[in-house]
Amino acid sequence: MKTTHIVSRVLFYFTRFLSVVYFGLASYSLLSLITGWSLTFKDGGKYFQVCYPFTTHPVMLGDYNLPYILFDFLAPLSLYGLFFLLSSNVFKLFYQPKLFTQNGIQHLRRFYLSNLLIPSIVLFIAFFFVPLDNEVSIFIVLHGMLGVFAYFLAAIFKQGLNLQNEQDLFI
């Protein structure tokens, strides 16, 4: 069980770090796109480059049109920030002193609902504005499978919490 605690703690910090990076990139890119700060254009304004602060070296590149910016650039960055934040909350469950808690079930519930619903909703809305690649459908399927797995894990945690509560009543 000690190995599980170590691995889950490492994964918690790693996914939390990735969450901060993705949210930071999304926020910085949005700030650059709104204000024009650290933003350069290529090919007569067809492409944009979000540059590192106070430099002209690009960190993010993209097509300069609103549907692309919203659905192919900012949405994936911010949604993967959310994904890694929710993932870190799930990993945090496995190094807590008490494994089966109502709070843990809530974190798993948020994780599976976000993996099942958000990609499909964003894909449905984006379908009307931007052409979708085949890779996008693969990611939707993978998030769906992850959501189903997390749903079953939440059901196991709920059963474990019920058994733990029954055991506490007998003591």
Number of domains: 2
Report strand %: 5-15%
What characterizes the major β-sheet? Answer: 3 strands, antiparallel
Q: Element order, helices and strands? A: HEEEHHH
- Evaluate the radius of gyration: 20 Å
Molecular shape: elongated
Average predicted confidence as pLDDT:
92
Query: What portion of residues is helical?
Result: over 70%
Q: Give me the secondary-structure category.
A: mainly alpha
Number of strands: 3
For the terminal residues, how far apart are their CA atoms? 24 Å
Identify low-pLDDT runs: none
- Number of distinct helices: 4
Strand arrangement, major sheet:
1-2-3
Task: Report on the architecture of this protein.
The chain is mainly alpha-helical. The chain folds into two domains: 1-84, no CATH class; 96-171. It has helices at residues 2-35, 66-93, 102-127, 134-170; strands at 39-42, 47-51, 58-63. A three-stranded antiparallel beta sheet has the order 1-2-3, covered by helices on one side. A hairpin with a 4-residue loop joins strand 1 and strand 2. Helix 1 packs antiparallel against helix 2, helix 2 packs antiparallel against helix 3 (102-127) and helix 3 packs antiparallel against helix 4. The relative contact order is 0.11. The mean pLDDT is 92.
Key phrases:
mainly alpha, transmembrane, membrane, about 170 residues, single chain
In a few lines, what is going on in this structure?
The chain has 171 residues and is mainly alpha-helical. Helix content is 73%, strand content 9%. A 3-stranded antiparallel beta sheet has the order 1-2-3, covered by helices on one side.
